[in-house]
């Protein structure tokens, strides 16, 4: 009997169920009834505190199109993994002990960057682990694409599309704030797809003068409205020059709920144009996975199952140049895939006339 534990950790995304289904279907095809799948509940929390539900073949039926995760998720920050919990429990030892108690052959862990660091820690501690790259942020090193990203691009683009008509009617400046604290992939793709005039990313600190200049240019050209796609983590050049400590102190005194409101107020004051802010927020992680995500989730899931069948552990299954490839976990953990300001996509976007505020 093969025993495999499934675990989804960190912020959810649309294609988690589709990916687990891909793993499970391939395992059932190979092992028939000789495989037991432990659905570890609410991410690493379930592994620490021993909460699971045995999943059966029927649990994976009808979930290809279902967003969220059938086994729940939670955030368990990697930086506190080595700290005992409030009752003095050693979390890493507890996870290892449950892994042994349940007689697992391996863990299939679906998650983002923090999740991968803990998965690598479990690997170092002797657990068999195969991971899958989940996040709407597309910031996992070692894979060209994460599942969830394209579904979120669709939603964020749709938000910009909807704003277009009302912005045009009223002749206003609109800011659509897109998810992504550390990286701007989602904002970049949704911004280009939605025809944003200005895109502000964490990787390219902006100068408000350049933003105002771009808006004034549009006004002079007779354009009655403008749209900005602004990442949650967009940062001004001034703030980017501060130390972490200085920035933290400055942000404590910041009266704005998020960066878009600050940029919005500055634009309104400087240009006299009416500004409105839209924050699609967690809608970007919700709803059903896009067809593209369903395809890559099924492929990545099937490939993860093949690794388990061959007992090749310690890998993340990634996508490179359209091919599914195993990437050693120790190479993935702790690295972030960011937007390179010098990359061709940025140059092409600039060629289209999009302003990045730099
Ligand atoms: O990591 C995915 C992500 O959606 C980020 O883009 C976003 O900033 C964050 O999660 C929001 O996290 P939470 O759901 O904990 O508010």
Compact description:
This protein has two domains: 2-148 and 289-332, Rossmann fold (3-Layer(aba) Sandwich), CATH 3.40.50; 150-285, Rossmann fold, CATH 3.40.50.460. By secondary structure, it is α/β, with parallel strands linked by helices. Strands 3-2-1-4-5-10-11 form a seven-stranded mixed beta sheet, with helices on both faces. A four-stranded parallel beta sheet has the order 7-8-6-9, sandwiched between helices.
Task: Walk me through this protein's architecture.
The structure is a single chain. Helix content is 41%, strand content 16%. Helix 1 (16-31) runs parallel beside helix 11. It has two domains: 2-148 and 289-332, Rossmann fold; 150-285, Phosphofructokinase domain (Rossmann fold, 3-Layer(aba) Sandwich), CATH 3.40.50. It has 13 helices and eleven strands. By secondary structure, the chain is an alpha/beta fold. 6-O-phosphono-beta-D-fructofuranose binds next to loops.
At the fold tier of CATH, the topology name of the largest domain is Rossmann fold
Spatial extent as radius of gyration: 22 Å
Measure the end-to-end span. 58 Å
Strand content: 15-25%
**In DSSP terms, counting alpha (H) and pi (I) runs of 4 or more, how many helices?**
13
**Coarse shape:** elongated
Task: Give the helix proportion (percent range).
Answer: 40-55%
Structural class: alpha/beta
Largest sheet: 7 strands, mixed
- Count of structural domains: 2
Give the helices and strands as they follow along the chain: EHEHEHEHEHEHEHEHHHEHEEHH
Q: Tally of extended strands? A: 11
Mean pLDDT figure: 97
Bound molecules: 6-O-phosphono-beta-D-fructofuranose
How do the strands line up in the largest sheet? 3-2-1-4-5-10-11
Low-confidence parts:
none
Based on the coordinates given, report the CATH architecture of the largest domain: 3-Layer(aba) Sandwich
Quick one: CATH class of the largest domain? Alpha Beta
């Amino acid at each position: 009997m093969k025993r495999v534990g499934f675990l989804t950790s960190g912020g959810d995304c649309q294609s988690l169920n589709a990916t687990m289904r891909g793993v499970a279907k391939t395992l059932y095809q190979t092992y028939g009834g000789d495989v037991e799948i432990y659905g570890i509940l609410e991410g690493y929390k379930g592994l620490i505190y021993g909460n699971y539900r045995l999943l059966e073949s029927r649990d994976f039926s009808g979930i290809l199109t279902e967003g969220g995760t059938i086994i729940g998720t939670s955030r368990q920050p990697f930086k506190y993994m080595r700290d005992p919990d409030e009752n003095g429990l050693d979390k890493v030892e507890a996870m290892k002990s449950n892994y042994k108690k349940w007689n697992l052959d391996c863990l299939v862990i679906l998650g983002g960057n923090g999740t991968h660091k803990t998965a690598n820690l479990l690997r170092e501690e002797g657990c068999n682990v195969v991971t899958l790259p989940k996040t709407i942020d597309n910031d996992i090193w070692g894979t060209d694409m994460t599942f969830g990203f394209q579904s979120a691009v669709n939603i964020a683009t749709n938000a910009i599309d909807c704003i277009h008509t009302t912005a045009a009617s009223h002749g206003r400046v609109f800011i659509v704030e897109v998810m992504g604290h550390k990286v701007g992939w989602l904002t970049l793709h949704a911004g280009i797809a939605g025809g944003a005039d200005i895109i502000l990313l964490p990787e390219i600190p902006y100068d408000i003068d350049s933003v105002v200049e771009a808006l004034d240019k549009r006004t002079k050209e007779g354009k009655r409205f403008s749209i900005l796609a602004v990442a949650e983590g967009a940062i001004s050049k001034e703030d980017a020059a501060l130390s972490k400590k200085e920035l933290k102190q400055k942000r404590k005194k910041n009266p704005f709920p998020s960066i878009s409101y600050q940029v919005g107020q500055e634009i309104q004051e400087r240009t006299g144009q009416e500004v409105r802010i839209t924050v699609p927020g967690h809608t970007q992680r919700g709803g059903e996975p896009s067809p593209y995500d369903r395809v890559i989730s099924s492929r990545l899931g099937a490939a993860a199952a093949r690794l388990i069948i061959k007992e090749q552990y310690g890998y993340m299954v990634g996508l490179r140049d359209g091919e599914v490839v195993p990437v050693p976990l120790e190479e993935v953990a702790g690295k972030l895939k960011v937007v390179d300001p010098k990359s061709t996509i940025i140059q092409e976007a600039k060629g289209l006339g999009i302003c990045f505020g730099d």
